[in-house]
Specification:
Largest interface: A-B, 55 and 62 residues
Strand content of chain B: 15-25%
Radius of gyration of chain A: 21 Å
Number of helices of chain B: 16
Radius of gyration of chain B: 23 Å
Number of strands of chain A: 7
Largest sheet of chain A: 5 strands, mixed
Largest sheet of chain B: 8 strands, mixed
Number of strands of chain B: 24
Structural class of chain A: alpha+beta
Strand content of chain A: 5-15%
Helix content of chain A: 25-40%
Strand order of the largest sheet of chain A: 2-1-5-3-4
Structural class of chain B: alpha/beta
Distance between the termini of chain B: 59 Å
Oligomer: heterodimer
Helix content of chain B: 25-40%
Number of helices of chain A: 9
Chain lengths: 252, 598
């Protein structure tokens, strides 16, 4: 809806477990002059109207991953989305916290499970013992295969869009599987077999039902589903992949 | 000594989980220090190191200009066996000249020498850099560098480095206190004993005692209206250290990056110019020809920002209020922009509605980097005065520190380098300090309780002004009175206003009175910090009656080596900062001061 609204009605989900029994929506009027972003609107509300409205944010240009929230039912980063773009026919936008995670306060959620899954898949590279004096020689093609996964900012939009995550907290999740994909594809990593085993467990790649919510939500246009599919395929050919890795590492 | 039930102890406490903090933590852990706690007011992966775009400098000699294509021609990989075109010595000279001879040359030498192995260290740890056809790390040109030595990962280099070093710190068992806010530094008798911090989640305040404390808290761009810096960059570390009696050095040197998005200040990497972009004014002229005929758009940042501001001041700016300049990337072509500058393209589209493939992008100078900070040795040891007396147990590295490797102006791609090299060195020095037998030092009184009372007083204020009223005025003051071009009248007015704002803040209202995740309280504390260090910045600018690097006085337009070839050291005094001055380390036989021209 792109009608001309001079003022927007920003509906923010409030919930402070210390004082509220349950979440509720609170409305604020925000001027659209100057074409503010959704984050600008929230900052205005917080600093000028109600300082208790609480949300995470930092870089405000979509690289830090702090400000993922649910706006009109979709998970987005509020810092790089114009307010006007998200107004409905009555000039309203509704901002809620990321789904499926416990609410700490208002739009701030508890990401413990999100980070636990990230740690579980061993996000760090495990290089071979034989370290060259200079850089490992990675081909531009090998870089291209990984590069999009590397751009993940761990914002959680995909995780909180995934219905499987909604049903099963133990599901490793698209963010961690995307990271694992990156490491499995990296010729410098020495433990692809171990990684494939981690993701082949009962809460790993088998749980992805290719619902595609992750792709839809990702602000960086990444493709966790494809990464998960690749991992699934490689997991069935684990030994061959390990052999291939050993061979490749000889010419690194 | 009173033991507070909320007291936490560690061998080492590091505040800040960006590149410098994480390198220090990982390195100390590698050296055998087991008990390390890293505090960050954001989740570590949200640290501002991740916003760096263009590259990290090191003379790897992977790439050179294609022969006979001139200084802005294409680059190619250097065939094996061919002559190198770069060296750490050249990197050193470029950095010294970039610093307008205020950088300490011994520290610069260390940084550029270690640059080479730290780049390989990053790559071995798993960074996915862009590559040359034969698989080596790709490099691009950057402002003020005489050879293409900015090693890059598309245009999200900082993001890649940050994620990698964080992963490695986790791998080494470093414990992170995510979303803990620094409140105070405990220093007594020139010995650092710990810090006081708040767990943002529940508002609980804790004394944290440590044998060694390190600050890696970043810069302070948020004192200005238009800045590339994240909301978090409010100079908490410099302000709190200063308040605790630690001196600050060279605070008047603030870098304005030439290409921030018009009105927003969001960074459009120097890589845009490194890859060949032009700057044009309202007449379509590539005006840099008149200011830096040789280097043009790739002159160092202070020079380019001044040139832009001059064009704007003389009426040749673009945009509805004529405060902008155009950054033109169209001639780079679609393919190059998509592969080398994808992030800045998205930023341009999201925030200006222009696609750099098709249109020039409106930009303007933006407050970007703080050359000044907590003075340290090249091992990250904080010094307590201009003579270099060490402050036992206190370390600092990264943008918060002033070693000084950037002097009066920093070259692009040297900050990611600085944070990595000196973060690593500080980690080693801290490990050495611990292993040499450092002890936990006694803490007098109850710092947590003291800070609790201070916070309570903040929360009880009821205005009528809001904290935001004060913050906005501070930013406006700094921008108009202490920006790119400064003069005595403006600086004096600015200083008077800041002192007034200090008083007004004492009555300003914090609306959220709760203890759970109270970011309104944090905004109040951060605003206090902005005012604290801004007073030092403006006072230092007022005192320094010369122009050097990023500090430009229209009433003192020349560089004055006779009186001013020295670092400004500021201690908190009764009525504002007390200044003393520290010598610059210069290799007089190798790099004596020269005229700075590009």
């Amino acid at each position: 809806m792109n009608k001309k609204f001079e003022t927007a009605t920003v509906r923010v989900q409030r919930f402070n477990p210390d004082i509220d029994k349950k979440p509720y929506l609170q409305e604020f009027e925000v001027s659209t002059e100057g074409d503010p972003t959704l984050l600008d609107a929230l900052q205005f509300i917080k600093s000028r109207i109600d300082g208790s409205v609480t949300f995470r944010r930092s870089c405000r240009h979509a690289i830090c991953g702090s400000c993922a929230m649910n706006v009109n039912g979709r998970n987005i980063l509020v810092c790089h989305e114009p307010l006007k773009k998200h107004l409905d026919g009555r000039g309203r936008v509704t901002i809620r916290p990321l789904p499926y995670l416990p609410i700490i306060k208002d739009l701030v959620v508890d990401r413990t499970s999100f980070w636990r899954q990230y740690l579980l898949i061993k996000p760090w590279l495990v290089p071979p013992d034989n370290i060259p004096e200079k850089e490992f020689r990675m081909t531009p093609q090998e870089v291209a295969d990984l590069q999009s996964a590397e751009h993940c900012i761990m914002c959680g939009a995909c995780y909180s869009a995934c219905t499987v995550v909604g049903m099963t907290k133990e599901y490793i999740g698209p963010h961690a599987l995307l990271k694992e994909f990156m490491r499995v594809m990296d010729p410098r990593d020495t433990i692809p077999g171990e990684r494939l085993e981690i993701v082949s467990g009962s809460y790993g790649v088998a749980r992805c039902h290719t619902i595609f919510n992750c792709i839809d939500a990702c602000p960086k246009h990444l493709d966790p589903t494809k990464a998960i599919e690749t991992l699934r395929n490689l997991a069935t050919k684990r030994q061959a992949w390990e052999e291939q890795r050993k061979e490749r590492q000889e010419t690194l | 000594m009173m033991a507070n039930e909320n007291t936490i102890t560690h061998d080492v406490i590091i505040v800040g989980a960006g590149l410098a903090g994480s390198w220090a933590a990982m390195t100390a852990a590698q050296q055998g220090v087991k008990d390390i706690g890293v505090l960050s007011k954001l989740h570590p992966l949200r640290s501002h190191s991740g916003a760096a775009q263009g590259g990290i400098a090191a003379a790897l000699n992977n790439v050179r200009p294609v022969p006979d294509t001139g200084p802005r021609g294409p680059l190619e990989q250097i065939p094996p066996g061919d002559e190198p075109i770069d060296s750490w010595e050249l990197h050193m000279f470029d950095t010294i000249k970039g610093s307008d001879w205020l950088g300490d040359q011994d520290a610069i030498e260390i940084m550029v020498q270690e640059a080479i192995n730290i780049l390989y260290a990053y790559e071995h740890m798993g960074c996915v850099f862009s590559r040359t056809p034969d698989g080596r790390i790709a490099q691009r040109r950057f402002g003020g560098h005489s050879a293409p030595r900015a090693n890059y990962a598309a245009d999200w280099t900082g993001h890649v480095l940050l994620h990698t070093i964080h992963e490695q710190a986790l791998r080494h068992g470093v414990k992170f206190y995510s979303e803990w806010y620094l409140l105070d530094l405990i220093v007594e008798d020139n010995v650092c004993r710990g810090i006081v911090a708040m767990n943002i989640l529940d508002g609980s305040i804790h004394t944290l005692r440590a044998k060694a404390v390190m600050f890696a808290t970043g810069g302070y761009g948020r004192a200005f209206k238009i800045t590339s810096n994240a909301f978090a960059n409010t100079g908490d570390g410099v302000a709190i250290a200063y308040r605790a009696g630690v001196p600050l050095m060279d605070m008047e040197f603030v870098q304005f990056h030439p290409t921030g998005i018009y009105r927003h200040g969001i960074l459009m990497s120097e890589a845009c110019r490194g890859e060949g972009g032009y700057l044009t004014n309202s007449e379509g002229e590539r005006f840099m020809e008149r200011y830096a005929p040789e280097k043009m758009e790739l002159a160092p940042r202070d020079l380019v920002s001044r040139s832009e501001q001059t064009e704007i001041d003389q009426g040749r700016g673009i945009g509805p209020d004529k405060q902008g300049i155009y950054l033109d990337l169209r001639h780079l072509g679609r393919e190059k922009i998509l592969s080398r500058l994808p992030q800045v393209r998205e930023i341009a589209i999201d925030f200006t509605g222009t696609d750099p493939i098709d249109d020039p992008v409106p930009i303007q100078p933006t407050a970007h980097y703080s050359m000044g900070g907590i003075p340290t040795t090249a091992d990250g040891q904080v010094i307590a005065d201009a003579e270099g007396t060490p402050l036992t147990g206190f370390f600092a590295a990264g943008e918060v520190a002033c070693v000084s490797v950037h002097g009066a102006n920093r070259l692009g791609s040297n900050s990611l380098l600085e944070a990595s090299v000196f973060g690593r060195r500080a980690g080693k020095a801290i490990a050495q300090f611990i292993q040499d037998g450092a002890n936990l030092q006694p803490v007098n009184g109850d710092p947590a309780a003291m800070n609790q009372a201070r916070i309570q007083a903040h929360l009880e204020r009821n205005g009528p002004e809001l904290v935001d009223d004060i913050a906005q005025e501070l930013k406006e003051t700094m921008t108009s009175k202490c920006g790119i071009f400064r003069n005595e009248t403006n600086l004096e007015e600015g200083l008077a206003r800041i002192v007034e704002l200090k008083e007004r803040l004492k009555r300003a209202k914090i609306m959220d009175k709760g203890s759970r995740f109270n970011t309104d309280l944090l905004a109040g504390l951060e605003t206090e910090h902005l005012i604290t260090f801004s007073e030092v910045v403006v006072s230092g600018a007022l005192a320094r009656t010369e122009s050097r690097g990023a500090h430009s006085r229209t009433d003192y337009p020349e560089r004055d080596d006779e009186d001013w070839l020295k670092h400004t050291v500021a201690h908190k005094g009764e009525d504002g900062p007390r200044f003393s001055y520290k010598d610059v380390f210069i290799y007089w036989d190798r790099f004596p001061p020269q005229k700075r021209q590009y």
